[in-house]
Amino acid sequence: MSGLRFAAPNGATLHHVIREGQGRAVVFANSLGTDLRIWQAVVAGLDPETPVLLWDKRGHGLSEEGPVGMEGHAADLAGLMDLHGLSGALVCGVSVGGMIAQRLAADRPDLVAGLLLSNTGHRIGTAESWNARIETVERDGIAAMAEPILERWLSSGYRASNPEAMAGWHAMLTRTPAAGYAAMCRAIRDADLTNAARGIEVPTLCLAGSEDGATPPELVRELADLVPGATYRCLDGVGHLPSIERPDEVARMLRELMGRIG
């Protein structure tokens, strides 16, 4: 992908990719422990003229670290969108990226015309579970947790059939800075987006994976029930990251949602 950029709209330098084009933009927000590369196959399934923005959250990929809450991450994304003149976009976020998308829709509704909320919720996990993960990563590093995380990310069928890809995703995860990972865990722990979800007023698709061990289908269904008029879909045999396992289907859903927005 072309258009690699660095910018600091809110004090921390953020790595992002912008693809210029015509029409409504699609903006992608990543999950915990991943970078913008998880969307590359999805972007390839969109119209090549569609403007696209991908970015690495603070403490991930090539972006600077810096602890902020969910509001701060949404402000980072808003700053990048403002920088590139993007408004009324279709925002696609997975896991914590989906939480950032909900916060963005509440705080800057001018920037959001539609949402694909993939494998996410209005709340994810408990304070106890996040505190335990923070303690582990700060004491032992991400590598100590990598295998169970990958089992939640990707279905058993995908893991068995794609050993080379699994080695690559393992590398992406374990090369995430421990401090950046822990800071994002704190942001997720402290976020309650119940009111934000109830206030969403744009076409929204909530997407689940039947083998998702991180945000199981019942959690995504709960989110869909909160968002007025939201559509719920569950991909059979898919884990936490459909953008990796079923990118063509995610791209098709984005094209369909774009048609609904008009």
- How far apart are the first and last residues' alpha carbons, in Å? 26 Å
Instruction: Report the total helices.
Output: 12
Query: SSE order, as H and E?
Result: EEEHEHEHEHHHHHHEHEHH
Strand content range? 15-25%
- Average pLDDT, rounded to a whole number, is 97
**Global morphology:** globular
Q: For the CA atoms, what is the radius of gyration?
A: 17 Å
State the secondary-structure class.
Answer: alpha/beta
Biggest sheet overview: 8 strands, mixed
Q: Spatial order of the strands in the main sheet?
A: 1-2-4-3-5-6-7-8
Give me the count of strands. 8
**Helix content percent band:** 40-55%
Query: Uncertain segments of ≥5 residues (pLDDT<50)?
Result: none
Task: Report on the architecture of this protein.
It is built from twelve helices and eight strands. It is globular. Helix 3 links the parallel strand 5 (89-94) and strand 6 (112-118). The protein has an eight-stranded mixed beta sheet, sandwiched between helices. The protein has 262 residues and is an alpha/beta fold.
